[in-house]
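Page 47, continued from p. 46.
Same chain as before, 292 aa.
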Amino acid sequence: MSTTPTRPEMPQAESPVPSYGTPRWIPILFVVLFLVSGYLVYAGIHSRQGLEMQLSQSNAQISKQGTTLDKANSQIDDLKAELDLTSQKLGLTQTQLAEARKTAAVLRREQVQSSKQLQAQIGQVQQQTQAGMGQLSNELGGTKTDLAATRKDLASTQSKLEGTVGDMGVMSGLIAHNQKQLDQLVRMGQRDYFKFNLYKSNHPYRVGPVMVQVSHVDQKHWRYNMYVTVSDKRIEKKNKTLYEPVQFYTPDAMAPLEIVVYQINKNEIVGYLSAPKDQQQGKQAAAGPSTK
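Result:
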């Protein structure tokens, strides 16, 4: 049987003796509390000063707003007074407006009636104008027809006009055999023409630029005698027949003047005097009575 070795015993330590002195954290705690109290006092004072400043500013704003409110109240009173006055004026204006509307309605009715009357008058004028235009068109159509007939008649008349040799051997122009052909010659405008109807007389009558005296008329044989006075020169023309160009000159004429008789009555001859266009004296109007 074995034996177990025995462990030698260790010497036991002595127990520490408790100490009863002041702990270190207590002073630190006092310092912290002091600092916190100081901060709280400072913060309270600072907050109080801020509150007092805000209170002062609020009081100033309240005073300012009170002044503004007083002004606003004053303005409101003024606006009320103006509103009352405007209301009174508006009442008067509404009355006038009602009268104006009434007058405008009357004027509108009158305008509508006048417009209807004007339209009716315009319709009548248009109808009259259309009728007048129709009548004018008819008249123009008739005028064109008449003009065409006149042109045809003139052409026919011109074809009937004849030229012959005068009593001085000078070729005469176109000779008119009646009043209608004479009118045609006048319209052609190649010479100046002076119509006459002269009776047998003992004194001359003016025909254009000359003086003419009928001394003898033979209706049976269609003959006549006359005296022509040109620039104080008296020329006798004897035994002249119907449609014969009786020619003579004036001192300033380049072509002869002609007397043509196309109708012989008892003691009367009817015809015309033709003169060149450059014969200034030929532009004088015939004067004197056709009978003595």
